[in-house]
Amino acid sequence: MLRIVLFFFIIILATPISGQQILISEDLRGDTMVPKFGMNRKNFGHFYSGFHGFAGSAESLADSLNYTTSWAFDCGYRYKRRFSQVLSAGIEWQIKRLSYSTRQWDKLHTSAATKVDKQKLVFLQTGLSFYQRFNYDKRRGDYVGRYFDVGVYGDWSFNIRHEYFYRNRAGAKVRIRESGLDFIQPFEWGVLVRLGFNNVVLKTSYRFSDHFKETSGIGEFPRLTYGLEIGIFAF
User: Fold this and answer.
1) 207, 226 Cβ separation under 8 angstroms
2) Burial 178-210 (b: 16+ CB within 10 A, else e)
3) Average pLDDT over the chain, rounded to whole?
4) Would you say 180 and 158 are in contact if contact means Cβ atoms under 8 Å apart?
5) How many CA atoms lie within 13 A of 183 on its CB side?
6) Contacts for 38-42 with beta carbons within 8 Å, 24 or more apart?
7) Is residue 67 pLDDT above 70, yes or no?
8) Which residue would you say has higher pLDDT here, 74 or 169?
């Protein structure tokens, strides 16, 4: 009898026992999933806006430029791709409005019956910029930090208009807008430099291209701009 019991006991131990079947398994000993999008992550993008002034000397007929009322405004979207804690690169799309105000451009206004009081040349542009970023902030974390950008830009002036104001014989103030100006170059390009502190950026740029065609006889406006940008993101 004991032999029979031992025999059946050995058979039971040798027979595979089927329990619950594992359908999904997960190793939770170390979750290595890191977000790829964020201020100090692999990818980051944000909107921005900026206000800039002009610096440097104007040429020839543009030497009467009024620097206090001449300015540039831009806004756009900036994307950054991080390669290391120090090195990043990116691209941005921007829309700009350049307004050059002058005391007197005798060569520009032709329709006014009398001497103009003031006038300005307005450029509406859109384009792209490519930049290289060097992050020199020793602190680490998910924030933009301090950085230095160098890059190039190219813009297309899709709308250009000449505005001037004068008073008619009745003493009423008249504003004239002229478009379709054939003496303006439609494209411009240059270089840019930025110094950033989180979402506050000091920026300067230099325009290599000319605003006016050589046949116009009009001297160039200042090529250097400087100003402040604000990145629109939480920090």
Assistant:
1) no
2) beeeebbeeebebebebebeebebebebebeeb
3) 83
4) no
5) 14
6) 38/142, 39/142, 39/143, 39/144, 39/233, 39/235, 40/82, 40/140, 40/141, 40/142, 40/143, 40/144, 40/145, 41/82, 41/142, 42/81, 42/82
7) yes
8) 74
110-114 contacts at long range (C-beta below 8 A, 24 or more positions apart):
111/176, 111/178, 112/164, 112/166, 112/176, 113/166, 113/168, 114/166, 114/167, 114/168
pLDDT tens digit sequence for 76-104: 999 999 999 899 999 999 999 999 988 66
- Rounded Cα distance, 191 and 166, in Å: 38
- 194: nearest Cα among 80, 67, 113: 80
The per-residue pLDDT for 80 is 95
pLDDT at 157 over 80: yes
Identify residue 128 by its one-letter amino acid code: L
Structural contact between residues 98 and 225, judged by C-beta atoms closer than 8 angstroms:
no
Here the tokens at position 56 are 């440097």
The per-residue b/e assignment along 14-30, b for 16 or more CB within 10 angstroms, e otherwise, is eeeeeeeeeeeeeeeee
Contact 225, 54 (CB under 8 A): yes
pTM score of the predicted model: 0.79
Specify the length of the chain in residues: 235
Best CA proximity match to 229, nearest among 123, 119, 131: 131
Nearest to 73 by CA among 188, 194, 225: 225
